[in-house]
Design goal:
- By secondary structure, this protein is α+β, with helices and mostly antiparallel strands.
- The chain folds into two domains: 112 residues, no CATH class; 38 residues.
- Helices cover 24% and strands 23% of the residues.
- It contains five helices and eight strands; from the N terminus they run E-E-H-H-E-H-E-E-H-H-E-E-E.
- Strands 2-1-3 form a three-stranded antiparallel β-sheet. A three-stranded antiparallel β-sheet has the order 6-7-8, with no helix packed on it. The chain has a two-stranded antiparallel sheet with strand order 4-5.
- A hairpin with a 6-residue loop joins strand 4 and strand 5.
- Helix 1 packs across helix 2.
- It is globular.
């Protein structure tokens, strides 16, 4: 897995704050058309672009476009018994850490990885930036074709 980089994202209008992982930052850059999603994205490019373009992103709490982002200091994402997921940046619950002490992914991200949907191989919609899901679409005569479908805007892309 790539080097862990987490961003501290803030809205000074409503005092909202959240820690985002590289994947979340990349999805937001794709959504505002500042980055084209690729299977093997470069974390260093995301690290440079995300803080610059955060002001063009909408706050999920108040809707204002005045976000700021910076590389999160280590103490803001790892506390005594709290560890953040390396993929999404959310805090891994203490119960999970008690069951799996060396867990680096939250339950949701771990289940995605176990289903074989590699975290760095995620496909993102070129229209809205949401993660696309892989479905088998019938082409007739009993033939199916794997197709990526965006759950948000329903855009389709045949798997290559």
């Amino acid at each position: 897995m790539a080097k862990t980089i987490l961003f501290e994202v803030r809205c000074f209008q409503c005092c909202w704050m959240e820690i985002w992982g590289l994947e979340h930052a990349m999805r937001e850059l794709v959504r505002i058309a500042r980055y084209r999603a690729t299977a093997n994205f470069d974390p260093e490019i995301i690290r440079e672009l995300f803080p610059i373009h955060a002001a063009q992103m909408e706050c999920p709490n108040c809707g204002k476009m005045e976000l700021t982002a910076r590389i999160a200091p280590k103490e803001s994402w790892t506390w005594a018994d709290e560890v953040c997921c390396e993929y999404c940046g959310k805090i891994i619950p203490a119960e999970r850490l008690a069951a799996v002490p060396n867990a680096t992914l939250c339950v949701n991200c771990q289940s995605v990885a176990e289903r074989g949907e590699l975290l760095n191989d995620a496909k993102y919609c070129p229209r809205c930036g949401d993660a696309m899901t892989l479905k088998s679409i019938s082409c007739g005569n009993g033939i199916t074709r794997p197709t990526f479908i965006c759950p948000n805007c329903r855009h389709r892309k045949t798997r290559t």
